[in-house]
UniProtKB/TrEMBL annotation:
Homotrimer. InterPro entries: Gram-neg_bact_OMP, Gram_neg_porin_domain, Porin_dom_sf, Porin_Gram-ve, Porin_Neis. Residues 18-365 form the Porin domain. It comes from the Bacteria. This is Porin. GO terms for molecular function: porin activity. One of its GO terms (biological process) is monoatomic ion transmembrane transport. It is a multi-pass membrane protein. GO terms for cellular component: cell outer membrane; pore complex.
């Protein structure tokens, strides 16, 4: 639920070239302390509990991490010689409203990894991190200027926001060569007797040269309960045992044995004031013998975002997306979701800004209820900031204003 592009301010610790008690020189090291604090006020026209289609009421409340998820982190690098560096990142999300961790019982819930990097050979990192699918597609995600909170495709069904982080991940990222960059990742669940059960694997390729950019990615998340059913705590996308990405869109399908995502993203920069991005994704939730639903569920989403920067201080963006599910599991009128977004951002300085966001979504058709069997009317759920509090009706309006500061 955040905008990806932000600038950190470095607090650099440089180890001396030599110590009085040692003859050899020590390599340079640096540690960067960085963070974001984001808070605002939001309104939604209808709010109810997940799975309900009645009892919705308008809600007006303080919201945190809308433009850029509130966080603090440490990044480090040590020169090992020959162009190779040891690197690490530790990053924790929090609520600026009450100081709570973004995910209970996870100290560094956003990222926690260590690895090596080389300008010629690329980087290899290990730990909790974003899969290759997200890392190379994110420049073309609608969340860059519309935010994930309001602007992610409904419920972030295609995983183009940052809510999917994979534990125990080994990730390779190539250097850029003639505009191309490749990445592959594999996440080990560690289930005894199986290297596949509960794992996540992903691959992606990106081309960016001049004003043109395009990326293609694939990701598969396997439930550690290999037959489906209850989401296994050993699943590599587990958030302290919790399942990511449950919304009114996917609520009836959360007992899947596996999730597959394929996406294409592209962008074109016309000049310093105008750029455009577009994405297409195909998402599949695959049932097992333990799943509550019986037929494969598929969602196809297309979206487009136009960004306009008329002055150094102002940024404006508008976006539209259309998501449609397939007819399956006894549903004759497949669910669809149309979403329109607007955003305005004013830079008070390089590190501080004010923002306003507006969104409208209309849902049609039918989907599965919480039990994975009953058929209910599809209800609206803007972005991924309202995953746990969707609308009780077909329509939903969301408005937010706030302030973000980076350090």
């Amino acid at each position: 639920m955040e905008k990806k592009h932000y600038a950190g301010v470095k607090a650099v610790l440089v180890i001396g070239a030599s110590l009085a008690t040692a003859a050899p020189a020590f390599a340079q090291s640096s540690v960067t302390l960085y963070g974001i604090v984001d808070n605002g006020i939001g309104y939604q026209s209808s709010s109810t509990s997940l799975g309900s289609t009645t009892g919705g009421h308008s809600a007006f409340k303080m919201v945190t991490g809308v433009w850029a998820g509130s966080r603090f982190g440490l990044k480090g690098a040590e020169d090992l010689g020959g162009g190779t560096k040891a690197i690490f990142t530790l990053e924790e999300g929090f609520s600026a409203n009450n100081g709570a961790m973004s995910t209970s019982n996870l100290m560094f819930s956003r990222q926690a990894f260590v690895g090596v990097s080389n300008a010629t050979y690329g980087s290899l990192t290990a730990g909790r991190q974003y899969a290759s699918y997200y890392q190379l597609l994110s420049p073309y995600s609608p969340t860059t200027w519309l935010t994930g909170f309001y602007g992610a495709h409904p419920g972030d069904v295609d995983g183009l926001d940052t809510i999917y982080r994979a534990n125990n991940t080994l990730l390779y990222m190539s250097p850029q060569l003639y505009g191309f960059k490749f990445s592959g990742s594999y996440s080990f669940a560690g289930v005894p007797g199986s290297a596949y059960q509960g794992s996540t694997w992903s691959t992606a390729v990106q081309y960016a040269q001049g004003p043109v950019g395009i990326a293609v990615g694939f990701s598969k998340i396997n439930n550690s309960n290999v037959n489906g059913g209850t989401f296994g705590t050993d699943t590599t996308t587990s958030n302290a045992g919790g399942q990511a990405g449950i919304s009114a869109v996917t609520n009836g399908y959360q007992s899947a044995r596996a999730q597959q995502r394929f996406a294409v993203g592209a962008g074109y920069t016309f000049n310093s004031q105008f750029d455009i991005t577009a994405t297409y994704s195909n998402v599949q939730y695959l049932p097992g013998i333990g799943s509550a639903f019986r037929d494969e569920a598929i969602w196809n989403t297309g979206g487009i975002v136009l960004h306009w920067k008329p002055t150094a201080a102002w940024d404006f963006a508008t976006g539209y997306s259309y998501t449609r599910s397939t007819k399956a599991n006894g549903i004759s009128s497949a669910a669809s979701y149309q979403q329109v977004n607007l955003s305005e951002y004013y830079s008070l300085s390089k590190r501080t800004g004010l923002y306003a966001l507006q969104a409208y979504q209309r849902a049609n058709g039918q989907t599965l209820g919480s039990n994975g069997r009953s058929i209910i009317n599809a209800t609206a759920t803007i972005g991924d900031g309202f995953n746990s509090t969707p609308s009780s009706s077909r329509s939903m309006v969301g408005v937010g204003v706030g302030m973000v500061h980076r350090f």
